[in-house]
Amino acid sequence: MDSRSHIACYIPGVAVVGIVFNLIVLVAAPLARPDLDLFQKALSYFAVGPWGVLQATAFTAMGIASIALALALLWAGAPTLWMRVAVPMLVIGGLGSLGLVVYPMGEPGPTTLLGDAHQTAGTIGGVAQLAAALAFVLAIRSDPRWRGAVMPAGVAFGVALLGSILTQTAIWWPESGIPMGAVMRLAVVPLVVLWGVVAFRLRRRCLRPGFATRSAAAR
User: Fold this and answer.
1) What is the end-to-end Cα distance of the chain in Å, rounded?
2) What is the per-residue pLDDT across 163-199, written as a single tens digit (0 to 9) for each?
3) What's residue 205's pLDDT?
4) Minimal CA–CA distance to 100: which of 128, 69, 131?
5) What angle do CA 212, 217, 219 make, to 5 degrees?
6) Alpha carbon distances (Å) from 218 to 73, 87, 135, 193, 197
7) Burial class (CB within 10 angstroms; exposed 0-12, middle 13-18, buried 19+) of 48
8) Which of 31, 37, 68, 183 is the most buried (most CB within 10 A)?
9) Residue 12: which of 198, 219, 164 has the closest Cα?
10) Cβ neighbours of residue 216 under 8 Å, at least 6 residues apart?
11) Which residues of the chain have pLDDT under 70?
């Protein structure tokens, strides 16, 4: 394996590690913070106070993973317009996750039309992740390398979109009684799992003989 192929395999590996860590924290953080209602409290509540470093590190890991996955997709070849949309949207989504750490919930910071810095980072990051997922689904429809992945990816996007709509509804109309924690996880988990599967498949594909030639041809 030459140096370029080694890097091509390393990048999706970084994404896999970050995503797996994020999934572990999604389970571990509520166990570490039994004082917070899993169904009512948003993920950001788990990033402050006792054990807050756990969720904050998960936000960081997801940010790095999203950017690494974007690079991996670009390296593997982005021959369609939709894949070229997915790549920068993943980068923006990753930066949004990192913004949640730079501007923790409740801390002073700049404000925008979307709210404080923390809410702005979360909103932009979430919308970008949804846009990346939709663009990815559209990009792989006719790509034989992703045969069989279109339907699961579409379902993941649809569930995440529903969760995002319900989350925004809960923010705008708190009196609606929608459980914020539950619907936010409905928006987050499908996308995290989707990107984890994509990163794993890219990692596995790059280990096959002739990967460097195929990826160069795709570009």
Assistant:
1) 19
2) 999 999 998 899 999 999 999 999 999 999 999 999 9
3) 81
4) 128
5) 100
6) 11, 15, 18, 25, 20
7) middle
8) 68
9) 198
10) 77
11) 1-8, 78, 207-219
